Hints:
Blueprint: E1 6-10, H1 17-26, E2 30-36, E3 41-42, E4 59-61, E5 67-69, H2 71-81, H3 94-110, H4 115-118, H5 125-146, H6 159-175, H7 181-191, H8 194-202
Parallel strand pairs: 1-2
Antiparallel strand pairs: 1-4, 2-3, 4-5
Amino acid sequence: MTNASLTLYWARNVCSLAPHIALREAGAAFDLVRVDLRTKLIEDGHPFEAITPKRYVPALRLADGSILTELAVILHYVADTYPDAALAPLHGTLERLRLDERIHFVATELHKGFAPFTIMPNAGAEAKAWAKDRLGKRIALLADDLGDRPLFGGERFTILDAYTFWAVSTYRRLTQAELPPNLAAYVERVRARPSVKSALDAEV
């Protein structure tokens, strides 16, 4: 642990990678504390429930000691706390609303759809096939939305890209489905960013 004012509680292969990437993009000083989602213990052996009764990641300890939870909220916190990083458009603009719209789409139409492959141990082949088909349709919508842009914000990396990179990569890993060509190229483009490389290396 360092004297950083922020602490991100994370777990491997889950959505806490998105705020981890955002924090690195922002140039924030922060500590990482790994959570074992099976035992619900943090790396020093203490119960994660003492940090947050929700017992899932991500969770972000702020400078005043309070805990912020929920992925989209943490992403917006990072963007608004480090405005020079330009990770989100200004509040009150249509551009910001469009960013929020896309983040909610990823959260509700992709992320939540992973459940049969992750947190539903009794999900059978039929349920997984249904989920894969439904997710594939959402991936197609996402690919259409991206079009030929390098990032969802055009040339500018945003908190949406941090989340979408994780979600699309996870979709491919869980379903073994082939991505539309533009989304496949997008994933590799984002993966090559220094912030993403550093985050992935730290979460080995």
